[in-house]
Backbone:
């Protein structure tokens, strides 16, 4: 089998214009990503080759790097599930995009063919696995249903945020919780998704109370600039008591948990009001961890639900977010607090883990090719 693969590689390498990509590859759990040059194989049905412009770093990737999702059977593999780029080539039967189109790359399935996971080749014949979408690459093979074409008026830098952060955070506000004007919202965790929820609660849903909860003052100050009306540093005060007191003992209409911590999930549920208060869990716990709630709170009418990407329909919602940005309704520029070239991705990952940044982007144009 290996000799057959090597023969294929040998043939590919003799082709003058063979396509290659530079990728950040996870080769071992809890190890830095490795920057590698990989061979791109001919596109299959439903696949699209995209020149990636920007990719976001999401906590889902951090969980994968640290093995918090359980056994990883696909090592070595590429990472990244939100980004933006320009279509270079389309595979058989692709109709949603064409070469030259600008597109958002998103992990949330939309219309189009659901192409199988792809893989790339090293020159030694070994395989690097990839899913239907990976964005930590300069050129990436993406499934047609993980792409949404956008107007070229939309800057690709801000467009990268529409692959996960905004659809999930804003989607929770608009689709999952259906936050109403004049209502109260508490957001636990002010990373990319939490800040996106704050932006949507303020600029689109017009909530009256928007309470940001975090343990980093820098992120809380950032939340105030983007629409929060109140901030609580949970490392300095009891967040449940502070919220309940602020709401005159009634609790809030909606809480959104984005920190991915057991305690914050439990606290977020405790803070919602009786008779219809809703807690939406967006964060991910390490595999096997569980939360505890008092079932009597359910009897009192409190509700708790999970969310799958903010119940986003990418083909419907992403163009709406594009229009909201271009018309000045939502501020996405301030959501990006840091960018790095792909070659410095491990530094970017460390800064994201430290909690000192909003959304960190990987800028592919700054990567040596």
Residues:
């Amino acid at each position: 089998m290996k000799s057959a693969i090597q023969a294929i590689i040998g043939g590919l390498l003799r082709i003058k214009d063979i396509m290659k990509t530079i990728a950040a590859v996870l080769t071992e759990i809890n190890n830095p990503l490795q920057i590698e040059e990989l061979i791109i194989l001919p596109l299959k049905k439903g696949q699209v080759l995209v020149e990636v412009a920007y990719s976001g770093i999401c906590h889902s990737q951090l969980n994968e790097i640290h093995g918090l999702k359980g056994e990883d059977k696909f090592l070595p593999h590429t990472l990244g599930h939100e980004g933006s780029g320009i279509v270079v080539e389309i595979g058989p039967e692709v109709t949603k995009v064409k070469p030259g189109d600008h597109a958002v790359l998103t992990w949330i399935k939309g219309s189009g063919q659901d192409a199988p996971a792809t893989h790339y080749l090293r020159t030694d014949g070994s395989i690097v696995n990839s899913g239907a979408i990976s964005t930590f690459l300069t050129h990436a093979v993406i499934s047609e249903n993980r792409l949404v074409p956008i107007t070229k008026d939309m800057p690709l830098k801000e467009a990268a945020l529409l692959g996960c952060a905004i659809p999930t955070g804003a989607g929770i506000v608009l689709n999952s919780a259906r936050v109403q004007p004049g209502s109260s919202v508490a957001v636990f965790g002010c990373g990319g998704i939490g800040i996106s929820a704050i932006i949507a609660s303020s600029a689109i849903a017009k909530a009256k109370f928007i309470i940001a909860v975090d343990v980093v003052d820098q992120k809380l100050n950032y939340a105030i600039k983007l629409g929060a009306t109140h901030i609580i540093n949970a490392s300095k005060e009891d967040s449940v008591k502070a919220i309940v007191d602020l709401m005159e003992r009634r609790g809030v209409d909606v809480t959104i948990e984005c920190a991915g911590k057991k305690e914050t999930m439990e606290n977020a549920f405790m803070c919602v009001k009786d008779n219809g208060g809703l807690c939406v869990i967006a964060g991910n716990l390490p595999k096997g961890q569980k939360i505890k709630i008092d079932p009597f709170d359910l009897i009192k009418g409190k509700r708790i639900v999970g969310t799958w990407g903010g119940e986003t329909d990418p083909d419907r919602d992403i163009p709406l977010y594009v229009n909201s940005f271009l018309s000045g309704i939502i501020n996405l520029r301030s959501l990006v607090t840091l960018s790095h070239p792909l070659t410095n991705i491990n530094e970017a990952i460390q800064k994201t883990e430290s909690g000192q940044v909003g959304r960190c982007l990987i800028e592919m144009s700054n990567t040596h090719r």
The first helix runs from residue 2 to 13. Residues 119 and 324 are 36 Å apart (CA to CA).
